[in-house]
Amino acid sequence: MLLLALAAPSLAADNQAVFDGDGAGVDLGTSLNPGGAFTVEFWVAIEDVSSSSYSTLFEVVDTSDAKNTFYIGYVGTRWQVETFDVNASEGGSCTDGTEGICYTDSITEGDPYHVAVVVDGTALELYIDGVLVDSETLSASMSWSTEQWVLGVDTDSGSSFTSDYFSGVMDEVRVWEQARTE
């Protein structure tokens, strides 16, 4: 069953949500609960893919400590999926042993990519343009309580979403209450 399908905001062009990197994100609230088997998918075209860029695409964060329960972004030169993060900074999961995926991929600014992350119990998979590019085994299934769900912006403090802004367009954002197949 589909839990969330994002309708494009009024400022979008051609039914795509446009993010200009100015700190505006989309707040999806605190009541989403896709369970332990779910899929997050969307189309994205990123405008800044420099080696120092942090593009937060999708984030589920515990605002009490600013740690990500679940994160999808393009950090530097890699797609990154974080789960059960141990610190509040993106990029750390690639070096601190946090469970997640860090898939190095050279993408082209402005080109559209379909991103899908599938979680099925302890299985974590990342698909880019319909191709499984990386997978990981988690130590536990995902669970949810009152985390904040957002698109396009990050928090490193837990109290305000003021970092790692996304610049580009996003379309057809979906959260499914099931682990979708390839």
Fold and architecture overview:
The protein has strands spanning 2-5, 17-20, 26-29, 37-46, 54-62, 67-75, 78-83, 100-104, 112-120, 123-128, 131-137, 148-151, 167-176. With 182 residues, it is mostly beta strands. It is globular and about 35 Å long. Residues 7-12 have low confidence and may be disordered.
Query: What's the count of strands?
Result: 13
Helix/strand/pairing category: mainly beta
Helicity range: under 10%
Spatial shape: globular
Share of residues in strands: over 45%
Strand/helix succession: EEEEEEEEEEEEE
Taking the sheet with the most strands, its summary is: 7 strands, antiparallel
Radius of gyration: 15 Å
Q: Low-confidence stretches at least 5 residues in length (pLDDT < 50)?
A: 7-12
User: How far do the termini sit from each other?
Assistant: 16 Å
* Mean pLDDT metric: 83
What's the total helix number?
0
List the helices and strands and how they pair.
Elements: E1 2-5, E2 17-20, E3 26-29, E4 37-46, E5 54-62, E6 67-75, E7 78-83, E8 100-104, E9 112-120, E10 123-128, E11 131-137, E12 148-151, E13 167-176
Antiparallel strand pairs: 1-13, 2-13, 3-12, 4-9, 4-13, 5-6, 5-12, 6-7, 7-8, 9-10, 10-11
